[in-house]
Amino acid sequence: MATNSHDSATEAQIAAALARCAAGERAALKVIYDIEAARMVGVARRMLRRQDLAEEAVQDAFMRIWRAARSFDPQRGGPRTWLYAILRNCALTILRDESRFTADEENAEDAAPIAESAMARLPEASALRRCLESLDAQRRTVVVLAYVHGLSHGELAGKLGVPLGTVKSWVRRSLISLQECMG
């Protein structure tokens, strides 16, 4: 019986934190994280069978939770149900994206020439070309494949044979570098 009252109290705490997230209170997201993150990683790990992908799914889920907190409706279900539905969708997205391309030498070797071909089409005096050339080859390839050829982060991870988090980091850092260069 004590477990049920504890679960009810925790559900109420999460629901209250979601309402505060909806109002823009960042500390409320940490409350939810502290209560549920470890369990969410475990659930995601069972779905994805890899710790790095599980952690990525949980990170993505918390970003979505923050952005969508206003859409939580306690009349439609409990707060944990809502959190885990978001987590499930994030994990399924990762599974789908990771499986589009398999990591093999052919895919990884094809990536650089495809990116270089796109670069060659830019005018020699182009500021974008100059800034792209300032990136190391692998990061330039990731940016070009993502923004010219429309590959998702998961597709890039599979094509290049690197973890999804690495691809996301490369893209983010490369875009910051490009933004500074284009200044």
The average pLDDT value, as a whole number, equals 83
The radius of gyration computed from the alpha-carbon positions, rounded to a whole number of angstroms, is 20 Å
Count of β-strands:
0
Order of helices and strands: HHHHHHHHH
Q: Proportion of β residues?
A: under 5%
Distance between the termini: 62 Å
Low-confidence stretches: 100-106
Structural class: mainly alpha
Compute the number of structural domains. Answer: 2
- CATH topology group of the largest domain: Rna Polymerase Sigma Factor, Chain: A
Overall outline: elongated
Number of helical stretches of at least 4 residues: 9
CATH superfamily of the largest domain: RNA polymerase sigma factor, region 2, helix turn helix motif
Describe the main β-sheet briefly: none
CATH top-level class of the largest domain: Mainly Alpha
CATH architecture of the largest domain: Orthogonal Bundle
Describe, in plain words, how this protein is organized in 3D.
- The protein is mostly helical.
- It folds into 2 domains: 2-100, Rna Polymerase Sigma Factor, Chain: A; 105-182, Orthogonal Bundle (Arc Repressor Mutant, subunit A).
- The chain has 9 helices and no strands.
Short note summarizing the structure:
The chain has 183 residues and is mainly α. Helix content is 80%, strand content 0%.
